[in-house]
Amino acid sequence: MQTLRQDLRLGLRMLAKSPGFTVVAVLTLALGIGANTAIFSVVNAILLRPLGYQDSGSLTNVWGKFEKQGIPLLPFSDPEYFDLLDHNQSFSQIAGYALGGSANLTRTDARPVQVTAANATADLFPLLGVRPVLGRSFAADEDQPGHAHFALLSYALWRSQFAGDPNVFSKTIQLDGEAYSVVGVLPKDFSLGGKQDLWLPLGLNRAKPGNRGSHYLHVMARLKAGVSAAQASAAMTRFADDLRRTYPNNYNPSAPDDFGMFLMPVKEQLVGKVRPALLVLLGAVAFVLLIACANVANLLLVRASARGKELAIRAAMGAGRGRLVRQLLTESLLLACGSGLLGLLLAYWGVVALRGLVPANTPRMDEVQLDPMVLAFTLGVALLTGLLFGLAPAWQISRTDLRETLNEAGRGTSAAGGSRYLRAGLVVSELALAVLLLAGAGLLIRSFSRLLDASPGFQTQRLLTMTLSLPEKAYPDGPPVQKFFAQLMEKVKTVPGVQSAGAVSLMPLTDSYSSGSVYFESTPLTDLPRYQPVGNLPYTEIDQRAATAGYFEAMQIPLVRGRMLREGDDASAPLVAVVDTDFANRFWPNGDAIGQHVAIDTIPDGQMQKARWRTIVGVVGHVKHYGLDVPGREQIYVSHRQPMYGTYVPRDMTLAVRTSQEPASLTNAIREQVFSVDKDIPLYNIATMEELVATSVAQPRLNLSLLVTFATLALLLAAVGVYGVMAYTVAQRTHEFGIRVAMGARPGDVLKQVLVEGGRLAALGLALGLAAALGLTRLMSSMLFEVKPGDPLALGAAAAVLVIVALAACYIPARRATKVDPLVALRYE
Predict the structure, then answer these.
(1) 515-520 and 91-107: which strand pairing?
(2) N or C: which end of the chain has fewer CB within 10 A?
(3) What is the 3 state secondary structure string of 276-303?
(4) What phi, psi does 779 have (nearest 5°)?
(5) Among residues 419, 410, 412, which one has the least CA distance to residue 313?
């Protein structure tokens, strides 16, 4: 212990004697440690930390799928849910829930507020082990048809709309004009992905379970003790086979291997999409830290060479080689500890910045913090880096003849060959890692540029969107709903600055999903796996939308053939439909979709006589509804003034308003028009289309920003490393350069010699980096859009940037070498 204290005191004293070196080393390492800690805090919260549910490892989601129809995640229908309950052998608990609902919360002291509403069976919260912070969760008798007027509030809604009233669970609230009893308040951190303001009982009716083809119900289950995920998955496969045999017309009888069921762990479903990007970023900051370590190791090698006489004297006075190595490692660890403390401060600022930059829909981001796990990670990284960069000078000392160093200390000899090669090797590794990060950043730049250039299928400029939802109690059937939107559209069009306006049941780029069956009166002209007959009636699954007249004009979706929807396409007129180019080209590649007849109602057992045929009157451009990087499926639009299924008319519609001025400036004027039709209808999800586009690419933009930042930092550190090595080399070879100049060498010859030596290091680092990039950038495939991992333009740009920066770093020491005075240089001899 006494020896350790001596080593620590001596180490602190030696670092204090070289404040410039100490500050540079600490700052260099702190940047790497801080970046690693910040990114690890995100990885820890999102990927590593268990979910806040009871025994979350045994929780799984159950999904269906129609692989050949392009539906990889198919929710359950009510009948399928009851079938699962009746035939379950793998799960100790099963619950269902539905997301994406909304309701108007009305109060006497304020205007109505739109809230997101989710529905759940009474089993969901006991399944998750979630207990309300106030009140209770749903009772079984409250989750019954006609008795489901009970509500659980989210913590955020309780605080924002009810001022944290502790007695709120004994009160009644008005949702869509109907009274609901509040039974409790959920914990602050509870979420099943996305935002849910309140939860309502699902109220499934086992006696009348509804349509087997209406898939909307998310199913979550807990594995029985002793049942593995593989066993439960096999049981779900058998269950799907039984459903297909029992109800052949519902599960694609012409393709027995199409329908299936599978399990997905709850955590995987929540964070699976962000895992590749987070791991790539964690790898990137690890490379930055390695470059920082290499830089500091080079600084320590130079410092150890300068301290050669001191170490030799200590050896002559009895200090063993092991004691000297330990002393150098102690100094390295002191540097690492100081860097770790500063890195923690940088990491705290980094986490704050990341919370502001990360898209709002990133799962578990609110859980990111510098917790004990992150602090332990920082300590471990600091100690590991201390060992990494401290081993280089320790290895040099262990291989140096200290007595010879003492004899030659005053003669100005150059550094040993092994030390020189070690420094060069460290610089080459820095350059290789920098190339790798530059290549990754180049790929993301190319990918993001392609993404921004991708057309969504409509014009995004000067387009305002906002959603409204009509309560069923005030608007019980189709005609009142249609009348409301007809009046509203007329009023909105009168607002100064409005050029055109329309409404659609689901707006593009809003994470909204709408899928349904479309039936053909006659067999299409194509023979694709996704086209399947039901009985004697061909059908397939596509995207469906209800739209008002004026929607296509407001969005500026191009008309390709035929006509668009009109005001006259109402309940008294023949049923019509407009399809997109993908639909028309897929099913009538050599013909014309105009005049063809399709139906979107659910038709039992392929009974053609029960179909309500719609005539296709127009073909419009394809719209990317789910993101600029998602091609999407075929689309069909029907008039909002003509019921979609039976008498159903969508009550939730999103307005699209094309303006001649700044769109957001018309928000209040349009809101007043809504209130003039019905004062109890609030607007929500108000955004310009450019904001929606920006939100849809927020995650790729963040990935790009972070990786470019890390690549730039790596390049700067590598440049500093090249400069340091070349400057030290020039200083060591001052005598040689003096002799060359004295013998008639021109400054250009000396400059060329130094640049060639630096160029060799850059070329070797470039070759190694490009070879690594060709392999490792394949891990980024899921982050790229229309760009392949081995893209030659991205790799070429990375190589060019590295060569330019490396040669620039070599140029300054090379210029210094040309200015050597032979008389001064010869004094070293």
Answers:
(1) unpaired
(2) N
(3) HHHHHHHHHHHHHHHHHHHHHHHHHHHH
(4) -70, -15
(5) 410
8 Å CB contact between 801 and 715: yes
Kindly state the average pLDDT of the residues 569-592. 90
For the record, the structure tokens of 298 come out as 């080079």
What pLDDT sits at residue 201? Answer: 92
Those residues with Cβ within 8 angstroms of residue 444's Cβ, 6 or more apart along the chain or in another chain: 700, 703, 704, 707, 708, 780, 783, 784
DSSP run (H or E) holding 314: helix 308-316
CA dist 577 and 594 (Å) reads 10
Best CA proximity match to 652, nearest among 463, 464, 466, 458: 466
> Is beta strand 172-175 parallel, antiparallel or unpaired with respect to 178-185?
antiparallel
Report the pLDDT value the prediction gives residue 687, as an integer from 0 to 100. Answer: 93
Give which of 398, 477, 401, 391 is closest to 426, Cα–Cα: 391
C-alpha 620/C-alpha 637 separation (Å) is: 10
Query: Do the beta carbons of residue 546 and residue 639 sit within 8 Å?
Result: yes
Quickly tell me which residue has 């970046």 as its tokens: 35
Q: What is the pLDDT of residues 33-72, one digit of tens each?
A: 988 999 999 898 888 888 888 888 899 999 988 776 667 7
Q: Which two tokens stand for residue 19?
A: 């404040």
Write down the pTM of the prediction. 0.81
- Amino acid at residue number 118: A
Tally of residues, the chain: 829
Residue 699's Cβ-side half-sphere holds a number of Cα atoms within 13 Å equal to 19
Say if strands 198-201 and 110-120 run parallel, antiparallel, or are unpaired.
parallel
Whether residue 59 contacts residue 220, with contact meaning beta carbons closer than 8 Å, is answered with yes
How many Cβ atoms from other residues are within 10 Å of residue 27's Cβ? 13
Contacts of 701 (CB under 8 A, 6+ apart): 448, 694
Pairing state between β 635-639 and 576-580: antiparallel
> How far is Cα 503 from Cα 546, in angstroms, rounded to an integer?
8
Place of tokens 């050949």: 68
- Per-residue buried b or exposed e for 140-151, using 16+ beta carbons within 10 Å of the residue's own CB: eebbbeeebebb
Q: What is the DSSP letter of 802?
A: H
Q: How many CB atoms lie within 10 A of CB 203?
A: 17
| pLDDT over 90 (residue 626) | no
Left (φ > 0), alpha (ψ -120 to 50) or beta: where does 792 sit? alpha
Q: In this predicted model, what pLDDT tens digit does every residue of 255-285 receive, in sequence order?
A: 656 788 999 998 888 888 888 888 898 889 9
* CA proximity to 240, closest of 259, 264, 256: 259
DSSP 8-class letter at 44: I
What phi, psi does 819 have (nearest 5°)?
-100, 15
pLDDT class of 419 with cuts at 50, 70, 90: low
Return the pLDDT at 531.
47
pLDDT in tens, 226-252: 899 999 999 999 998 888 888 876 776
Determine the pLDDT at residue 497.
94
Percent of the chain scored above 70 by pLDDT?
A: 82
Among 702, 804, 706, 707, CA closest to 439: 707
Both tokens of 708, joined, read 């470019």
Residue 21, C-beta contacts closer than 8 angstroms, at least 6 positions apart? 15, 299, 303
Buried/exposed code over 580-607 (b: 16+ C-beta within 10 A; e: otherwise): bbbbbbbbbeeeebbebebbbbbbeebe
Answer for the pair 29, 295: CB distance below 8 angstroms, yes or no. no
443-471 pLDDT, tens digit per residue, is 999 999 999 898 999 999 999 999 998 88
Q: State the Cα–Cα distance between residues 776 and 439, nearest whole angstrom.
A: 10
Tokens of 825: 């240089």
Please say whether the beta carbons of 161 and 191 come within 8 A: no
Q: How far apart are CA 702 and CA 76, in angstroms?
A: 34
CA–CA dist 349, 747 (Å, integer) = 48
